[in-house]
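Severity: low
Component: inverse-folding endpoint
Summary: output formatting inconsistent between runs
Steps to reproduce: submit the following structure tokens with default settings.
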């Protein structure tokens, strides 16, 4: 993208019903970046991802690669290359692992490309290859999160929105999952927005981070800069 900005968000407002949750969010994400969005419960992190993929009422500007994303048209936004992995994963528990992964490619007609991508996903997540014929619901939480991410990647997105993938996972499992996300980001140049409450671990994996509080970005910088910010450290990292 020109001038380095791949996703540009300007004065984004969003909410439910008459209520406002996002109150003027500005955000710039470079192509190929892992961008963390941190912040307390209720700050609006989930709403930000929903706004980006067209699931809530929005005002303001969202541009992907210079192109304005349509409002409230999730399918059209998905076709432009934005994939959303919602909180709680959204795997189809009675379907097998492979059926779940294939659902991510349901709009694609190139059978060979889909087969190759399926193989690539199993390369990233070898445990899913072993469990390909098992019901997704029989997998561990970490494995189900892998299915959800793998399914999103099967659409060959340019931007992946991950909503709190660590939810309910043990720290070691979360670390392994983030490691895989980083490998995918490096190998496939997929841009990632990672919403998390677990600031410590997330800052190890993100390139840049933004702190959202009460619907506004209150701090932005490289992962190191955000980690070094005193207020941030006190509020979210448990550092005195
Ligand atoms: P959490 O980590 O708890 O999910 P968050 O930062 O992701 O927090 P949001 O889930 O975006 O925050 O919620 C922001 C505000 O929007 C909260 O006050 C919440 O109650 C409200 N909200 C979220 N979803 C809805 C909805 N579907 N309808 C009405 N209000 C909602």
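Observed output (run 2 of 3):
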């Amino acid at each position: 993208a020109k001038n380095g900005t791949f996703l540009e968000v300007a004065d984004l407002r969003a909410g439910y019903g008459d209520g406002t949750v996002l109150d003027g969010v500005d955000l710039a994400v470079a192509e190929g970046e892992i961008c963390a969005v941190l912040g307390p419960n209720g700050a609006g992190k989930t709403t930000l991802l929903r706004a980006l993929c067209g699931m809530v009422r929005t005002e303001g500007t969202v541009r992907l690669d210079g192109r304005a994303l349509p409002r409230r048209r999730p399918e059209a936004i998905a076709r432009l290359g934005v994939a959303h992995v919602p909180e709680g994963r959204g795997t189809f528990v009675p379907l097998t692992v492979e059926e779940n992964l294939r659902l991510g490619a349901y709009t694609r007609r190139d059978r060979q490309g889909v087969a190759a991508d399926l193989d690539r996903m199993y390369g990233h997540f070898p445990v899913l290859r072993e469990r390909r014929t098992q019901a997704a619901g029989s997998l561990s939480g970490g494995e189900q999160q892998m299915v959800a991410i793998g399914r999103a990647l099967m659409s060959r997105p340019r931007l992946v929105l991950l909503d709190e993938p660590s939810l309910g996972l043990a720290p070691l499992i979360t670390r392994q999952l983030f490691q895989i996300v980083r490998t995918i980001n490096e190998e496939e140049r997929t841009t990632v927005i990672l919403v998390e409450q677990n600031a410590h671990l997330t800052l190890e994996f993100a390139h840049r981070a933004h702190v959202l509080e009460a619907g506004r970005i209150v701090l932005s910088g490289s992962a190191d800069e955000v980690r070094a910010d005193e207020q941030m450290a006190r509020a979210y990292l448990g550092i005195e």
